[in-house]
Design brief:
Distance between the termini: 17 Å
Number of strands: 15
Structural class: alpha+beta
Number of domains: 1
Number of helices: 5
Strand content: 25-35%
CATH superfamily: Alpha carbonic anhydrase
Order of helices and strands: HHHEEEEEEEEEEHEEEEHE
CATH architecture: Roll
Length: 249
């Protein structure tokens, strides 16, 4: 979301605010030791934003401002996809055709993947997992990432289906037939919105973060299946640096 839209939303409540493709870093990085997040900016010159950026992610969602944010329109299609273990997460790449529309801003769904524990927090609370649905703006090339928290509860059929065939080793992949990503959404699409970055190198600061308020319930067993392969892949919380977090009403 462009800054002028943030300002417009704030003013409605009496306030004011004073790529051809998805390019992720190729070099080795991780979450522990010399490759941990605090070292990402040192690993490659392209990762400088990881260390010096002022609009980094993830954030602790707190002090949000109520605003008249547009309704999310999700035109996600059931399709075949490829689920791959890339060494950092388990990611499902999807074909063209699915999109997110927010008041005329259209983002195409490229892939979705998972983090454990959750990267974003809510008033200091972390969740067992977080899914990121990575979209790219058709006009500007910037990203729109829809984040969904996962909480332990009853089994979710869509996530359980993926969990049964999670690729166990780096660079392993499996085909996912006729998968509907809408099965990984909670009942409500109320959300928080802020301007941030990718949470992995190169930490590019061109992301509109759309964080759903309601968590999705999935089984502890399926969370454990992910953690058995990827034990920990969450970047620590970073400072907001005077950014506004808007809350849909």
């Amino acid at each position: 979301m462009e800054r002028r839209l943030f300002i417009k939303s704030l003013m409605a409540f009496g306030g004011c605010a004073a790529c051809a493709g998805i390019a992720f870093a190729d070099e080795e990085w991780g979450y522990d030791g010399a490759e941990a997040p605090k070292h990402w900016g040192e690993l490659d010159p392209h990762n400088l934003a990881c260390a010096t950026g002022s609009q980094q992610s993830p954030l602790d969602i707190a002090g949000e401002i109520a605003a008249k944010l547009p309704k999310l329109e999700l035109d996600w299609e059931e399709s075949d996809g490829t689920m791959v273990n890339n060494g950092h997460t388990i990611q499902i790449d999807v074909p063209a055709g699915s999109a997110l529309d927010r008041d005329g801003e259209v983002y195409e769904l490229k892939q979705f993947h998972f983090h454990t524990p959750s990267e974003h927090h809510v008033k200091g609370r972390a969740f067992p997992m977080e899914a990121h649905f990575v979209h790219q703006n058709r006009e500007t090339g910037s990203f729109g990432v829809l984040a969904v928290f996962f909480a332990a509860g009853a089994a979710n059929e869509a996530f359980a289906r993926l969990a049964r065939t999670f690729p166990a080793h780096r660079d392993d992949s499996v085909l996912v037939d006729d998968f509907d990503p809408r099965g990984l959404l909670p009942g409500s699409l109320d959300y928080w919105l802020y301007e941030g970055s990718l949470t992995t190198p190169p930490c590019s600061e061109d992301v509109d973060w759309i964080v759903l308020k309601e968590p999705l319930r999935v089984s502890e067993e399926d969370i454990a299946r992910f953690r058995a392969i990827i034990p920990h892949n969450a970047r620590p919380i970073v400072l907001p640096h005077r950014r506004f977090i808007l809350s849909s009403t």
